[in-house]
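[step 3/7] fold_predict: job queued, chain A
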Amino acid sequence: MKSKLITALAMSSTIMFVSPVVAHASTNYLPTHIDLNGQVVTSPSHTTAIDPSSHQETSFIPIYYAMQVLTQLGISSKWDGTTWSLTVPSSLHADLSNPATASNQMYITMNGVKVESAPKLVAVDPASKQQTTFVPIYYLEHALQRIGVKSTWDGTNWKMTTGNTGTSGTTGTTETQTAMANAMWQVFNSVNWDINTHATMQQAGVSPTNAAVNAGQVATWLADWAEKSKGYTAAPYNSNVKKWVPFSLQYESSTDPYTWASENDLFQSTNVTSASSEISASETAQILSNLKWWLTGDRVVNGVHHLHVPMYGDYEQWTTSVQNGDMTQNQFQAALADATHYYDEITATTTGSTINITLPSVTNSATRLAWSVINNVYSTGYGGGPTRTGTALGGTTLHVPLGNFVRIVARSLDDGLMGVDIAYADQNGAPVFYQPIDSFNGQQ
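[step 4/7] structure written:
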């Protein structure tokens, strides 16, 4: 099968083709992960159809999600139903020679120059349940080659790398340690939810210089700050004596600061690929946005809440799982990392007295995650046992009536039902997504 991807914007309840020459479309939706420079940006669903030009089966994905990825490259998009207009910054050095002349159902332009013509179809995006325009990745891959973006598509993973990424993993002027540390501490000091004390750089043992800052340093500073600023009172396993337990990576998804930060999407939508990757000045704002998203558990984009597993200490869960001997440290960490990856793709909106929760598909999760969503009037998803079906697998939007709370749980069946269990209180008729409660641990 020739690799082709397709992208979205508007949407119907069944697949409907813009032109009768496009035929034999699949009604199945398949999991997709879109990856930019080693970081997963989004995980929509794709479908397949026959490309009328090559007469081969082609993969299609909603254009909306491709637009999200292009935004991370600094490319803005407009779609009018026929032409997808891309505005490419001069820093990407677009090759606009040999413009496209072939006719087709849609066109891709860069800075006003037609660079590709492609087929399209209209189908329902399973995430939004709306009619959406889909376009093929094969043609988009050709267009993106003009700005040095290389792509691979294996039927599930669309991986893109920017051609102008240097050995440091960044582009442009590098940020200094001092500037980055100062900016991070401004974010720390702006957040009050679930923070015991606002530790200073000195109290956290952080001493930045004017040298270039790398991702490993950023992650280490964050862990040092959390150890001094976060924690809670809890009793160890099999003990009634409570004690203050500071935040520690010993109880998190990884004891390595960079791995832990990456698993929690601190470097999402940047060119960071390793702990040694230097941070460019242009990437600082994105990392700070990701940091605040992690600390508050919520980020609102165009009225849509993008949820995040909040930065809570997992001491109690660790004592009852690892210290008690129910699982190994590696199993514990794998379950947390897997649950965090998928939980951070949840979106939510409210419509009247209903919360619309979009759960990503966990069909291919590494530890067989299963979703359950609960409040005082509603319950769906995983209900016990070794298997998971229906809404437990995600890939759907749930419409949950407002109640006193709503809990969203991601449980790992392979690793002793470990994972995350986050609750949101209902205040004044709406869930407070920016003050989540970790139901597994001591934050209630």
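[step 5/7] annotate
DSSP finds nine helices and 26 strands in the chain.
The CA atoms of residues 267 and 287 lie 6 Å apart.
exit 0
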